[in-house]
């Protein structure tokens, strides 16, 4: 039990892998400190620190890092290149540790290990070895902690697949099933998307997300494309999107993108085209950036839900 | 089969040379114009990057001239260029254009995929013929770059503004028309002589500015608003981090020809950006370091708006600029970019460099 503190910014991949890494560091006797929920201060710090052209989630991530950096012994900032064979994360995630290093004046000890399972799944053990070296714990403990964390993450993913939303959201009881597709950091960050899930639930929606579609179904539907989609989240979005387009119970699809997102400009556009060709359910493409206003969002969500309700009859 | 391919700077000359050598029917899209851009903006997703929009315009205009097959390169990520061909095919399909799209890229499962594509494109010619055609294209690419590098040196020094560009246009045309290797080399030689003969102020102190960034924006004068010409006229000698033949050498010849390569640039990047980030992000950082070592006065980074690898590079360049003490300016280009705005920024940047370089500005002018 070292009692040292590992800081974790509550942005980008946090929404996917929090359970995994929290369990990992817990098992090794570290305390995990997560940055505050996204708020005005964090967003403003992010906007001031990141380059103008970066997308909103990256700017907000800067805010989270700077929020937590001063209170911790280690800052968890891995370079996640790939988590699946022949796939990649977005280029900005590949560069994020270097981008932040360029902007932090006095950073705490960084855990900036590269995780790249593109060619070789067992690279993860190399990565764990590096992490153990940085935080000075024996490799054998690290591996044990990893196995425990992996199990917890697997259970969590199954829990989401069963149709549950992550902690902090109301349970899914609405009458009108719609799919809400987008990167986790847009969908599950209630400040960034102005409480979109909550607003839709108030309007009677039952939310389906891409996390609720099992990998095997995603793979089957993603294979409809003539070429392999090389972004992991892009593939999940396309696979689950095409699945929901065919799924009788889902009455409409909302695609949430951040302005300037490279993958979304391709994946979202492809999905919109397929939706138009199927032409069987409402599809809405929503773009978020730091200038998005709540009133405009509410109007669009209401109009969308009205359309869904009218179609269901 | 009537083949077309997207524009990117002088690529059309190389492409035409290669395909016509094989006896393939090629349709070169009309030169990029306001209309090309407009067609692209109309039909592409709003925040897709600028090259995609212009590709769409190129393909629509080529279809109007009877093209039915697109040849382009691809990739396996994580830069979105790797998925261009797929998205472009769907856009064109929705518009009613029946294009066959052939993407030359690293094969997903087996090498034979690539061979099959080459065979399909080669018009029944043998692999030997294909190799000869590629060599012919290569000779043209080299000639274009050699002449262009000379033009970049003459531009800031010429006594009569525009003289070098006049010769350059002539050479582009002649290299395009040349039907064999000897013809190309003759034009190259003659063009260099003509450029050498242009009256120049040889002892005039000249700023050296490097252009780094995303390949399409630095190679295509339509989207970078002829930035090199402007810099030349403002008295700066320009060098680019990417020339067409270097790119061909890096990507098609696996770096076999001995010349400046991306690999070398990536090495220079390592203290600042230790991992590749797709596209030319790491090369942008590395080239900036290299140009600083080579004594350049300033660096300009060009990229299409929303370009992911270049955003990574841009985030890191301030540190590079400080530690290597070289001024860096980033310019994003999109359909809103205007020439007057660009010119103002270039003039300001050049003023800054003159002042920093400790010359008496009057003496230079």
Structural class of chain A: alpha/beta
- Name of the CATH architecture of the largest domain in chain A: 3-Layer(aba) Sandwich
Main sheet attributes: strand count, strand direction, barrel closure of chain A: 4 strands, parallel
Q: How many DSSP-defined strands of chain A?
A: 10
Helix content of chain B: 40-55%
Describe this structure in words.
Chain A contains 12 helices and 10 strands. Chain A is of the alpha/beta class and 313 residues long. Chain A has 2 domains: 156 residues, Rossmann fold, CATH 3.40.50; 145 residues, Rossmann fold, CATH 3.40.50. In chain A, strands 2-1-3-5 form a 4-stranded parallel beta sheet, sandwiched between helices. In chain A, helix 5 crosses helix 6. Chain B is α/β, with parallel strands linked by helices and 365 residues long. Chain B has 3 domains: 122 residues, Rossmann fold (3-Layer(aba) Sandwich), CATH 3.40.50; 67 residues; 160 residues, 3-Layer(aba) Sandwich (Rossmann fold). Chain B has 16 helices and 8 strands. In chain B, the strands form 2 sheets. Chain B has a 4-stranded parallel beta sheet with strand order 2-1-3-4. In chain B, strand 1, helix 1 and strand 2 form a beta-alpha-beta unit. In chain B, helix 3 crosses helix 4, helix 6 runs parallel beside helix 8 and helix 7 packs antiparallel against helix 8. Chain B is globular and about 60 Å long. The N and C termini of chain B lie far apart (55 Å). The C terminus of chain B is likely disordered. Classes of the chains: A alpha/beta (313), B alpha/beta (365). Chains A and B meet through helix 4 and helix 11 of A and helix 4 and helix 14 of B.
